[in-house]
Amino acid sequence: MGHKNSTPAAWSLRRTRYDPPGLDEAIAAAQGLTDQVDSQIAIAAQLIGMPEDEVRGRVLMVQAQTRQSRPEIARGRQPEIVVVKRRSPRGPSASS
User: Fold this and answer.
1) 39-67 burial, b if ≥16 CB within 10 A, otherwise e?
2) How crowded is residue 30: how many other Cβ atoms within 10 Å of its Cβ?
3) pTM of the predicted model over 0.90
4) Chain segment 14-28, per-residue pLDDT in tens
């Protein structure tokens, strides 16, 4: 059977698209990495390639909005612990 394994010619013209993150995306990523505001400003500025002075105001505004919209976790409350146990296979025993 004459099956041919070659790549189509159009595939050689492909280009990888680079979309740098937007300011809000960079701030969200920085907030996920650290709780320190100065570090968030530095990380967000590096991700989008802007000076820290231009990013600072937006980071502070987003942080203020986040604090208002997200209630604090109840202090002294223990996190829920989940235990996952692995079951043995249900087939005939290998030791038989």
Assistant:
1) ebbbbbbebbeeeeeebbebbeebeeeee
2) 23
3) no
4) 788 888 789 999 999
